[in-house]
């Protein structure tokens, strides 16, 4: 099986064998041209010869059509995930016409009827979702580190910070540090606030920036970079069962 996760910044793929072990995987910035990036991967995908391609996309219909056109050339069956608020594994109070497919699949990959869970996606946006014994209560969306830095750059005259590392939440004494620590604090502060409000929820984090952010959260966090993959596998496994 080949699994694709089309996020707002990066295209991720995983190739799994018939017992679900990951055989190959990669993540690449698609620079808002995912179909073109995919074109460059088609011969590799053909060599993999998967029997099915399962796709999570938050890129919208126009890009999804271009992705479909590219994949159609491979003669490999593929399908996009559609959010189902009444899925047997998890019921959601969220508007399922609006809920991002990646948020839903990350939850589907983690959901456990016996637990209260806080699932945090650290991608282009940071998403926080609360699941109480397999009931999705809803969640939060806010800009992640690069989006926040870009908005300061474009929204102010004197802040022209465009690179640097997000590695501390200590107060800064230069613009460079005040910007990077302020942004990280805004994200970590929000997560710590949600964690404080829901002390008995298990904290689970995924996404490209999970490792950077988790280390500043004031409670143990389960880092799961396979969460969306697990959700894709559960979704398509479920859709096959009678
Ligand atoms: N402007 C940028 N410069 C460098 N890295 C970036 C930039 N924007 C995003 N990234 C990186 O891309 C990754 C995005 O995470 P990912 O979970 O793949 O997001 P999405 O699912 O939204 O595509 C993160 O590791 C982040 O550090
Ligand atoms: C919130 C998101 C942009 C996160 O996407 P990502 O950061 O993984 O690219 C995505 O889940 C999305 O487009 N959601 C639709 C709006 C909603 O979930 O309410
Ligand atoms: K947008």
From TrEMBL:
Positions contributing to ATP binding: 5-12, 124
Residue ranges that the Swiss-Prot or TrEMBL entry lists as coiled coil: none
Pathway(s): Cofactor biosynthesis; coenzyme A biosynthesis; CoA from (R)-pantothenate: step 1/5
Cofactor(s) this protein requires: K(+); NH4(+)
SUPFAM superfamilies named among the record's database cross-references: Actin-like ATPase domain (SSF53067)
Active site, UniProt feature: 102
Top-level EC class as recorded in UniProt: transferase
Record text on cofactor binding: A monovalent cation. Ammonium or potassium.
Main location group: cytoplasm
Key word ATP-binding present: yes
Cross-referenced InterPro entries: ATPase_NBD (IPR043129), Type_III_PanK (IPR004619)
Source species, domain of life: Bacteria
Gene Ontology MF annotations: pantothenate kinase activity
Any Pfam family hit: Pan_kinase
UniProt entry keywords in alphabetical sequence: ATP-binding, Coenzyme A biosynthesis, Cytoplasm, Kinase, Nucleotide-binding, Potassium, Transferase
Record: residues binding substrate: 94, 100-103, 175
EC number(s) reported in the record: 2.7.1.33
Catalytic activity: (R)-pantothenate + ATP = (R)-4'-phosphopantothenate + ADP + H(+)
Localization per Swiss-Prot or TrEMBL: Cytoplasm
Family: Belongs to the type III pantothenate kinase family.
Quaternary structure and partners: Homodimer.
Function, in words: Catalyzes the phosphorylation of pantothenate (Pan), the first step in CoA biosynthesis.
UniProt protein name: Type III pantothenate kinase
UniProt organism field: Psychrobacter namhaensis
Lineage: Bacteria, Pseudomonadati, Pseudomonadota, Gammaproteobacteria, Moraxellales
């Amino acid at each position: 099986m080949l699994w694709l996760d089309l996020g707002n910044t990066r295209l991720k793929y995983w190739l799994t064998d018939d017992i679900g072990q990951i055989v190959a995987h990669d993540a690449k910035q698609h620079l808002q041209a995912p179909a073109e990036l995919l074109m460059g991967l088609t011969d590799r995908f053909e060599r993999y010869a998967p029997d099915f391609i399962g796709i999570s996309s938050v890129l919208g219909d126009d890009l999804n059509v271009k992705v479909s056109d590219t994949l159609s050339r491979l003669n490999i069956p593929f399908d996009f995930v559609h959010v189902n608020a009444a899925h047997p594994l998890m019921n959601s109070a969220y508007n399922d016409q609006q809920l991002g497919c990646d948020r839903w699949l990350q939850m589907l990959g983690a959901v456990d009827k016996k637990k209260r869970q806080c699932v945090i996606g650290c991608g282009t946006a940071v998403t926080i979702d609360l699941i109480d014994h397999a009931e999705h209560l809803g969640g939060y969306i806010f800009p992640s580190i690069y989006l926040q830095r870009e908005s300061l750059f474009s929204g102010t005259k004197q802040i022209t910070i465009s690179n640097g590392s997000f590695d501390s939440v200590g107060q800064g004494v230069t613009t460079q540090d005040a910007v990077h620590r302020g942004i990280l604090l805004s994200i970590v502060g929000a997560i710590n606030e949600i964690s404080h409000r829901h002390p008995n929820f298990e904290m689970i984090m995924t996404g490209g920036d999970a490792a950077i952010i988790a280390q500043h959260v004031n409670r143990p966090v389960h880092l799961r970079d396979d969460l969306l993959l697990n959700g894709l596998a559960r979704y398509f496994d479920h859709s096959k069962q009678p």
